[in-house]
Design a protein that fits this description.
Number of helices: 9
Low-confidence stretches: none
Distance between the termini: 56 Å
CATH superfamily of the largest domain: Glycoside hydrolase/deacetylase
CATH architecture of the largest domain: Alpha-Beta Barrel
Number of domains: 2
Radius of gyration: 19 Å
Mean pLDDT: 95
Oligomer: single chain
Largest sheet: 6 strands, parallel
CATH topology of the largest domain: TIM Barrel
CATH class of the largest domain: Alpha Beta
Structural class: alpha/beta
Shape: globular
């Protein structure tokens, strides 16, 4: 059995491990980089956000959003923007906000500060060159923050954005996605869905499309208005 000093050392290691886990993955964590995960609770507004695009099916999503008069925030991958530049420009022309989701969608943990800085910078540069927009917001791939990310964000003028609700639309059917969002919705929520699947070409996002088609009118019927992340944080 460990003695008092041994138990204290074990407790310290466990505490540090829990703190690091929270700093890396906690949606409300700001220890490694500036970040928001929700907006004010005093207005019946929500921000619909999409990660991992653009994809070949993003135009179908844009049609759905246009049908309901909804503007969203798209956190795009630089690699996908390079592969599908016209669709990236279509997002911008439709009046949606564009955010940075990294260049190649890697996990950032155990990566060097230089790697993280280069990945963010490459995405920022690609997005600006293709769409003419320099993003103000960044969502870390897989929601993973790491040492060096804070400095990289600051150097590019980026605020991190996590989420209030994540629909898990990459692995759940549409009905389960809708149920998950509706169960947890509240004023100021940031909803995270996906119009791509990392940097995969021509991904199957039917669950996302079906979920959005059902989710948006349900939320509108409850009195929620949809805003971009910029509008949510004003």
């Amino acid at each position: 059995m460990p003695g008092p000093i041994g138990w204290a050392a074990i407790a310290a290691v466990v505490t540090l491990a829990l703190l690091l886990t929270y700093a890396v993955r906690g949606r409300s964590a700001t220890l490694l980089a500036s970040s928001i995960w929700k907006g004010p609770r005093d207005r019946a507004v929500v921000a619909l956000t999409f990660d991992d695009g653009p994809s070949e099916s993003t135009p179908l999503l844009l049609e759905i959003l246009a049908r309901f008069g909804v503007r969203a925030t798209f956190f795009v991958n630089g690699a996908n923007v390079s592969r599908l530049p016209e669709i990236a420009r279509q997002i911008q022309r439709a009046g949606h906000e564009i955010g940075n989701h990294g260049q190649s969608h890697p996990y950032y943990y155990f990566r060097s500060a230089a790697f993280i800085r280069d990945d963010l910078s490459a995405a920022q540069r690609t997005i600006a060159e293709v769409t003419g927009v320099e993003p103000r917001f960044f969502r870390a791939p897989y929601g993973v923050r790491w040492f060096g990310l804070g400095a990289a964000q600051a150097s590019l003028g980026l605020m991190g954005v996590m989420w209030t609700i994540i629909g898990q639309d990459w692995k759940r059917p549409a009905g389960a996605v809708v149920e998950r969002v509706m169960k947890n919705i509240r004023n100021g929520a940031i909803i995270c869905l996906h119009d791509g699947r990392t940097t995969t070409a021509n991904p199957d996002i039917r669950a996302t499309l079906d979920a959005v088609s059902s989710l948006v009118p349900q939320l509108q019927s409850r009195g929620y208005n949809f805003v971009t992340v910029s509008e949510l944080t004003r």
